[in-house]
Write a structure and sequence with these properties.
alpha+beta, GTP Cyclohydrolase I, domain 2, four-stranded antiparallel beta sheet, globular
Length: 129
């Protein structure tokens, strides 16, 4: 049986919970529907997060993202909805989700949603010579 869209994600234990490290993902095939016209909207999602105790399982993320294909939603709403679900399930130290939407009516839209754990402080940046 072929895979089906899913309204949730799965996680697995962070293999290095004692370290701050960043997981970055690029999801270039995101689609949803314009809530006004019903026409398809296309975007690339860029996810970056510093995990705490859990990481996202990739196939479940793919199936979750697929669940938006036939949904009408404003870019701002769905970017924040996805960020909220990921933050709730993963409880990351830091999470940034960027939606880069393709041109619609001559306008490109970028929506960036961030979530940060109250107890986490990022390390100072390292400047290399």
């Amino acid at each position: 049986m072929p895979s089906q869209p899913a309204p949730s994600i799965e996680t697995f234990p962070n293999p290095c919970p004692g370290s701050d490290y960043t997981i970055r993902m690029r999801i270039p095939e995101f689609t949803c529907l314009c809530p006004r016209t019903g026409q398809p909207d296309f975007a690339t999602l860029k996810l970056a997060y510093v995990p705490d105790q859990r990481c996202v399982e990739l196939k479940s993320l793919k199936l979750y993202i697929w669940s938006f294909r036939d949904r009408g939603a404003f870019h701002e709403a769905l970017t924040n909805e996805i960020a909220d679900l990921l933050a709730a399930e993963l409880e990351p130290r830091f999470l940034r989700l960027e939606g880069r939407f393709k041109v619609r009516g001559g306008i490109y839209t970028r929506v960036i949603a961030e979530r940060r754990s109250a107890h986490w402080q990022p390390p100072p940046p390292v400047r290399l010579p």
